[in-house]
Recover the amino acids of this structure.
């Protein structure tokens, strides 16, 4: 006898659930056991087994619900690599091979070959065939130079005070590391994303330094930049830009900072980045994730240009005082993919919405290539009408669709895309504004990678030092300086400083 012969439908009825929604219910007899199944959305669950709570949802089988499944997937990334993109550099990318130096540090002549590389014959009587060349780029052997300075002292005949001679980086009566060793430690710990302990191990293998020295070198360098008012200069330069990109990411901090009363500072630790789209200026700041903390940046009280960002609500407080907002379309694509994954057929509108936005981006790129500063009005109107239509359908088809918690995600997303359509489509009317916030996401890879290697920062203060140093080195190198030279410049009292863009 087959399994189907053992199943008998005893009764079918309707169940009134949350919000007085009528839900189909079936009573089934399976192998001498009676089970009641109730439909919840597109799923059926066992309504006869004991469960906690009231009759508002299938809490006993919550693992089968989409939200719980999302937890098991640990917020699976919606970032999708293009299937047409091959590994390696993009087409047209400039290579970074070594180019022969026109003025080498020195020129040497190799010994004349003694035997033929073909037959092995003696070349003592061979004819001169001219010269070839090669260049070898290398660094001298690493050796710690220990210089002992004698510091003359003079006593003033007027007041009797004794003055001791000073040498750069020296401290009378003490042994200290010089600027080159400090620069190497700062470079490894910041630009190299190497934890302090590992940096000390690498430095010790060459120079016999300690973990404390590495930490103090980084701290002193950050303090030098603070005294030079680097953050203020960066804020002023960014405020004068026509377009900025902004984003934030959570980070791990071992000990939370406390206020003047000793209470923990509210908000989870985050790194916020504000930058120009083309990487010219990159500013990192360590802040708790709150509206008030974001306001302490002090930047957006002066900035009047266009801001590219995601839809984190703390950014909304600045919308009224800037020229406009571009919602990051890459973020929106991931949200649309998440809705599409719920049901490829019922949520097909999400795929269509992505296609329309891609067409708009292609049209913008074409306009830029031809030197135009605006899209064809007829083309733009057609694209926008198609977008509005598909978004309206996304709201309609999901408005009454069941969901275990509030409104269906498809309805929530479609309503958001309708309400903020002007922010989604800004890139089609102001062509200088990028359509994604990928620039900021790329900038945040630096603290993410550092955390991946190091694990955490001790306090928000140490995280703040990291952000200041990374802002300085990243922006300086984007202006053509080598990181080691930028460090030397700051250590000698002449740091590179951000300047207002010239038009």
């Amino acid at each position: 006898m087959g399994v189907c012969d053992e199943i008998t439908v005893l009764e079918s009825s309707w169940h009134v659930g949350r919000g007085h929604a009528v839900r189909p219910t079936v009573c089934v007899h399976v192998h001498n056991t009676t089970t009641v199944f109730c439909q919840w959305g597109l799923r059926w669950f066992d309504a006869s087994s004991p469960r906690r709570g009231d009759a508002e949802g299938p809490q006993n089988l919550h693992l089968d619900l989409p939200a719980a499944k999302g937890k098991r997937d640990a917020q699976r990334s919606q970032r999708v690599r293009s299937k047409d993109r091959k590994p390696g550099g993009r087409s047209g990318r400039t290579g970074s091979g070594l180019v022969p130096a026109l003025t080498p540090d020195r020129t040497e002549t190799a010994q004349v070959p003694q035997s033929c590389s073909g037959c092995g014959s003696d070349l003592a009587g061979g004819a001169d065939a001219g010269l070839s060349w090669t260049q070898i780029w290398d660094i001298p052997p690493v050796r710690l130079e220990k210089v002992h300075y004698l510091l003359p002292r003079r006593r003033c005949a007027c007041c009797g005070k004794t003055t001791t001679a000073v040498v750069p980086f020296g401290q009378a009566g003490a042994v200290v590391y010089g600027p080159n060793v400090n620069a190497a430690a700062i470079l490894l710990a910041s630009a190299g994303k190497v934890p302090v302990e590992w940096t000390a191990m690498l430095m010790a293998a060459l120079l016999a330094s300690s973990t404390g020295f590495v930490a103090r070198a980084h701290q002193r360098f950050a303090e030098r930049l603070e005294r030079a008012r680097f953050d203020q200069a960066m804020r002023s330069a960014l405020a004068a830009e026509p377009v900025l990109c902004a984003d934030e990411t959570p980070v791990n901090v071992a000990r939370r900072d406390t206020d003047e009363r000793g209470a923990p500072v509210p908000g989870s630790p985050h790194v916020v980045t504000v930058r120009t789209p083309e990487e010219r200026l990159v500013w990192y700041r360590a802040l708790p994730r709150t509206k008030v903390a974001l306001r302490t940046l002090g930047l957006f009280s002066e900035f009047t240009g266009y801001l590219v960002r995601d839809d984190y609500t703390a950014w909304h407080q600045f919308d009224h005082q800037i020229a406009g907002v571009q919602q990051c379309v890459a973020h929106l694509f991931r949200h649309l993919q998440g809705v599409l994954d719920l049901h490829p057929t019922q949520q097909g509108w999400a795929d269509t919405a992505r296609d329309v936005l891609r067409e708009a981006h292609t049209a913008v790129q074409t306009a830029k290539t031809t030197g135009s500063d605006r899209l064809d009005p007829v083309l733009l109107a057609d694209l926008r009408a198609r977008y509005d239509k598909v978004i309206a359908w996304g709201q309609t088809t999901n408005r009454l669709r069941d969901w275990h918690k509030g409104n269906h995600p498809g309805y929530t997303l479609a309503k958001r895309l309708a309400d903020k359509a002007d922010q989604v489509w800004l890139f089609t009317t102001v062509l200088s504004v990028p359509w994604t916030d990928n620039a900021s996401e790329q900038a945040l890879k630096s603290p993410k990678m550092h955390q991946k290697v190091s694990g955490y920062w001790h306090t928000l203060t140490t995280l703040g030092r990291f952000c200041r140093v990374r802002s300085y080195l990243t922006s300086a190198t984007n202006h053509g300086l080598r990181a080691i030279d930028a460090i030397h410049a700051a250590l000698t009292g002449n740091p590179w400083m951000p300047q207002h863009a010239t038009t």
Q: What stands out?
A: Residues 1-23, 39-44, 47-75 have pLDDT under 50 and may be disordered. The first strand starts at residue 7 and ends at 16.
